[in-house]
């Protein structure tokens, strides 16, 4: 499945590792995608170098997202990971700095984040485009971004409690929150389940604690 | 917990329709001559439920803050509970104006996890469906954008022609807007009899229609006055903010995923990537109109060179066996049963495939743990990223320009809020 030709972005990743060996943990290539594991202390330094260095020229901030690897049944992370969350940055280099022509390189940076201290330095000082996606990761997964100028919830309402994309947050069965601090009955309380229907899933339990 | 704005008079300092406190907006004006005005979430020109809080100095916008999340339905969370095949149907509902392209972006990510190659006919039909969808989406943009600025006629023309394109989708899949026709492994079914003939008729008619829109708007002095030099953005600003699609190309960078990272065989079609120069509302309008012409070129080539063959992979772990086989083959019956009870099981891993949607680069970041449901299904929403450009585009402009600027970046709130 893996391409035989070496992806161009891999050369960039290797150069990045040689320039900042203390920040890069490992490089992984699968199906042509290059993913670089980066220590969270070094993420701003790495992103700044990729953005500013004329040879890298990774100036397109495609997006960033968070992944929760918690297996609620065992309490540990899946795939033997030592950390619970990962924040993934998706950067592209679209302009050849020498000629100004269009080119295409894509690099994924992955930052492991422990459950005990879910905080990552914000890259908004380099990429203004990180403003919304970092707010979304904070809102839905509860990972804080230190140094973000406006770290508020973005999709859920401001007085929501809990972070819905966490694996220990149930899909259904939680009490409905209304503005002003009141709650209403959950789906499980107000609707009789049909045979075979369930509000439980792989990630949560009926009427599980919201936070 | 925030106090209820309805019972807390101190928080009701906002001019406009909605009360202030609920979303915790800071309302300290920059100085005492400015005024804070609320626009939306229910406003005809916000193309959905977008709320803008604007601080005005006279009619000039000093600060503009978008507030989103009013139609957040937790689609990414829901995706973690669906099998890979079922999750296709919720991708339609993100950007509901370009459902085929959302299906395609999701499907390509699943296929990358599976490591499968789909048959040429399915690839060519995917190209046709996504270009039909691109023209249809651009027509909605043109209609609403022109309507916002006050050009009523273009609205009716564009919606009339969009209906013909939706008819093609309906003829193939049975529905107009939420087809879920592109699925992992190929397409749900082949094109029905007469579909290509009808396609060709629409394709032949389109250039005349494009000329009609241009006659209405291109040289229209009011249209030019309202759009030229309004809402300018540079390539560097676009890249830094993650802005892609026609908004980026309107500023002059020819970044089109179909060209730089072709998928579904787009490298086999001959088409250009139109770019603008000034990055203003007018250039974005010109780029989208030119793009519709290019999509029409692709459609024409695809009809002419349509290969024969199946539209689904033969791999029985991915696509179900044809119905007649179930009567004679035990293996077919088992495969059928396993597919519809358990579904597809891609190996553990991660995949992201960029796709060019009418709004910009769309892609699904899928994380698989080896089970039959995605561990994480994240969409890169082009509208969400493009919306970040709005505060900068509005700053220093008149309040009347806001509707022109919102229209020109072409956002769909279903995709922003998910």
Poorly predicted ranges of chain B:
1-24
Task: Tell me the quaternary state.
Answer: heterodimer
Q: Over the alpha carbons, how many angstroms does the gyration radius of chain B reach?
A: 23 Å
Largest sheet: spatial strand order of chain B: 1-2-3
Q: How many alpha or pi helices of chain A?
A: 4
Textual characterization of the structure:
The complex is a heterodimer of chains A (211) and B (418). Chain A has helices at 8-19, 43-52, 131-141, 187-190; strands at 24-30, 33-38, 60-68, 85-95, 102-113, 119-121, 144-146, 176-177, 183-184. In chain A, a hairpin with a 2-residue loop joins β1 (24-30) and β2. Chain A is α/β, with parallel strands linked by helices and 211 residues long. With 418 residues, chain B is mainly α. Chain B has helices at residues 75-79, 88-91, 99-114, 120-149, 152-173, 195-217, 221-227, 235-241, 246-251, 257-260, 281-304, 323-326, 330-341, 382-387, 390-394, 401-409, 413-417, and strands spanning 35-39, 51-57, 60-67, 182-183, 186-187, 349-357, 360-368, 376-380. In chain B, a hairpin with a 2-residue loop joins β6 (349-357) and β7 (360-368). In chain B, α4 packs antiparallel against α11 (281-304), α5 (152-173) packs antiparallel against α6 (195-217) and α6 (195-217) runs antiparallel to α11 (281-304).
Q: What is the gist of this entry?
A:
Chain A has 211 residues and is an alpha/beta fold. Chain A contains four helices and nine strands, in the order αββαββββαβββα.
Question: Keywords, please?
Answer:
heterodimer, A: 211 residues, alpha/beta, five-stranded mixed sheet, two-stranded parallel ribbon, 9 strands, B: 418 residues, mainly alpha, three-stranded antiparallel sheet, 17 helices, disordered N terminus
